[in-house]
């Protein structure tokens, strides 16, 4: 049986051995809605948002894909066109494996299929937990949880690179843009965080969530 998190190594190795490296600039599209699903992708470095256009003309960010994550496999494996679009939030290096090759690899290598299944199961569990959070928790808690998920802990502080706009964050956690701005400013004034130039430092990671 594959050990916990070993699936990440298997998928990374798969893309390093079979993928074609593409470099994308900040805000560049990797694919757009309704395009043919030609490739499966692996984030070698950078940050990618998976978003969907809404009827009101707004764009809703549904997921973020960080370094070491696979995306774009669902439509390939189900034979569908792209349901959403992928766009780089930061300059990114992405490995591409053609759809037909990826499908063949999942059929010929049980370890790859199992690793992909485990990875998708983790995402499903995370999504279920996140939906529960949206329903049952106040906005401040949801924002704090979002920041801690994005951040990197060093000693007792959490450092967060925040390339998303306040509006994009509001779509993800389910509130207004104004509420995001007001909450971050309030935390900054109280010394709970340091916030400047799209970077957030949570000053006391142990007390941060418990004091909300």
TrEMBL record:
<dbReference type="InterPro" id="IPR014710">
    <property type="entry name" value="RmlC-like_jellyroll"/>
</dbReference>
<dbReference type="InterPro" id="IPR000595">
    <property type="entry name" value="cNMP-bd_dom"/>
</dbReference>
<dbReference type="InterPro" id="IPR012318">
    <property type="entry name" value="HTH_CRP"/>
</dbReference>
<protein>
    <submittedName>
        <fullName>CRP family transcriptional regulator</fullName>
    </submittedName>
</protein>
<dbReference type="GO" id="GO:0005829">
    <property type="term" value="C:cytosol"/>
</dbReference>
<dbReference type="InterPro" id="IPR036390">
    <property type="entry name" value="WH_DNA-bd_sf"/>
</dbReference>
<keyword id="KW-0804">Transcription</keyword>
<dbReference type="InterPro" id="IPR018490">
    <property type="entry name" value="cNMP-bd_dom_sf"/>
</dbReference>
<dbReference type="Pfam" id="PF00027">
    <property type="entry name" value="cNMP_binding"/>
</dbReference>
<dbReference type="Pfam" id="PF13545">
    <property type="entry name" value="HTH_Crp_2"/>
</dbReference>
<keyword id="KW-0010">Activator</keyword>
<keyword id="KW-0238">DNA-binding</keyword>
<dbReference type="GO" id="GO:0003677">
    <property type="term" value="F:DNA binding"/>
</dbReference>
<feature type="domain" description="Cyclic nucleotide-binding">
    <location>
        <begin position="22"/>
        <end position="123"/>
    </location>
</feature>
<dbReference type="InterPro" id="IPR050397">
    <property type="entry name" value="Env_Response_Regulators"/>
</dbReference>
<feature type="domain" description="HTH crp-type">
    <location>
        <begin position="137"/>
        <end position="206"/>
    </location>
</feature>
<dbReference type="GO" id="GO:0003700">
    <property type="term" value="F:DNA-binding transcription factor activity"/>
</dbReference>
<keyword id="KW-0805">Transcription regulation</keyword>
């Amino acid at each position: 049986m594959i050990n916990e998190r070993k699936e990440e190594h298997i998928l990374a190795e798969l893309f390093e051995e079979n993928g074609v490296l593409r470099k994308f600039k900040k805000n560049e599209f990797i694919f757009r809605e309704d395009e043919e699903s030609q490739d499966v992708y692996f984030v070698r470095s950078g940050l990618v948002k998976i978003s969907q256009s809404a009827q009101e003309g707004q764009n809703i960010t549904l997921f973020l894909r960080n370094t070491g994550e696979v995306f774009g496999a669902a439509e390939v494996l189900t034979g569908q066109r792209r349901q959403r679009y992928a766009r780089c939030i930061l300059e990114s290096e992405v490995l591409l494996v053609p759809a037909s090759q990826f499908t063949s690899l999942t059929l010929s290598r049980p370890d790859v299929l199992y690793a992909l299944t485990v990875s998708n199961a983790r995402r499903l569990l995370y999504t279920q937990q996140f939906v529960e959070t949206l329903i049952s928790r106040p906005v401040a808690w949801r924002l704090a949880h979002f920041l801690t998920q994005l951040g990197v802990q060093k000693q007792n502080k959490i450092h967060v690179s925040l390339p998303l706009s306040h509006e994009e964050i509001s779509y993800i956690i389910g509130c207004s843009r104004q509420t995001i701005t007001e909450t971050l400013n309030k935390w900054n004034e109280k010394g709970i965080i340091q916030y400047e130039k799209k970077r957030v430092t949570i000053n006391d990671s142990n007390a941060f969530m418990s004091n909300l």
